[in-house]
Write a structure and sequence with these properties.
This protein is an alpha/beta fold. It has three domains: 46 residues; 70 residues, Ubiquitin-like (UB roll) (Roll); 124 residues, Rossmann fold (3-Layer(aba) Sandwich), CATH 3.40.50.11690. It is built from six helices and twelve strands. The N terminus is likely disordered.
């Protein structure tokens, strides 16, 4: 009797083990099928669906571009002083027959900023049919005289345009002289502003592309050193405060060792 129970128990264990193995195999098969299905869907989504979506989006955008509702009918131009509206439109390559949505705003911005008079440009769409352009023009601050030619330059020393000699008559711009004068102009200009001297300056001459000579409106010549420029200007200010006779020349090239001063009379 005991043996029969043992045999029956062993047979049950074997059968249970076989059933468990079959169930595991079935579950593994199902998991494998699901994994392959997900892998297939991932492949479709990655390689096929995006292109279909992009193509459809492009098609819809192209249809929008064809609508007369977005036809460019107004171009607003703000911030211009020297440049005419027609100049801006020509430089930007704009035509009112174009569709507003088809315009490359970044390209228009780059084209405008290539113009010597334009410091910065902003371009915006105003739906449905308006384009807004805001221009920040360069402001002439000086006239550069080099090799017998005259050029308008801004505060940063950028050349704006060449001008005829007749155009400098009656203007109040500072006169820059010599090769390399535009390169370091902003540095000396800022120093003269800082020291409160700029209002007295008539012209700045770059000597040997190494240092500056300053010509004042009262005909005084200031010779600055190659280095220690700010220190030399401080010395000049102290000399003026002493209230001596009018000076014809102040040579500061050898500071602090030597200073040469020439009186007018």
């Amino acid at each position: 009797m005991r043996n029969q129970v043992i045999k029956r128990h062993q047979a049950y264990k074997i059968k249970s083990k076989q059933t468990l193995l079959k169930a595991k195999a079935k579950n593994f098969k199902l998991i494998k099928q699901k994994f392959l299905a997900l892998l297939f869907l991932a492949f479709i989504g990655y390689y096929i669906f995006p292109y279909a979506l992009i193509d459809e989006t492009k098609l819809r955008f192209q249809k929008l571009e064809e609508l007369s509702f977005f036809q460019l009918s107004e171009i607003e131009i703000l911030g211009t002083n020297k440049l005419k509206h027609s100049d801006v439109i020509k430089v930007a390559g704009l035509r009112q027959s174009k569709n507003l949505l088809s315009l490359d705003l970044e390209n228009i911005k780059q084209l405008l900023e290539q113009n010597n008079w334009v410091k910065k440009a902003e371009v915006q769409r105003v739906l449905p049919s308006k384009l807004s352009i805001t221009v920040l023009e360069k402001r002439p601050e000086a006239i550069w005289w080099n090799n017998g030619k005259f050029y308008l330059v801004d505060i940063e020393g950028d050349i704006i345009e060449r001008i005829p000699e007749s155009a400098i008559t009656g203007v109040s711009y500072l006169l820059l002289i010599g090769e390399g004068a535009t390169v370091t102009y902003s540095d000396i200009y800022n120093l003269l502003i800082k020291k409160g001297l700029i209002k007295d300056v008539l012209s700045l001459a770059r000597v040997g592309n190494r240092r500056w000579d300053i010509y004042l409106k009262d005909e005084t010549l200031i010779k600055l050193p190659e280095e220690k420029v700010e220190e030399s200007l401080d010395i000049l200010m102290k000399l003026w405060k002493k209230g001596k006779k009018p000076l014809s020349v102040v040579d500061l090239r050898l500071i602090p060792d030597k200073i040469y001063i020439g009186n007018k009379f």
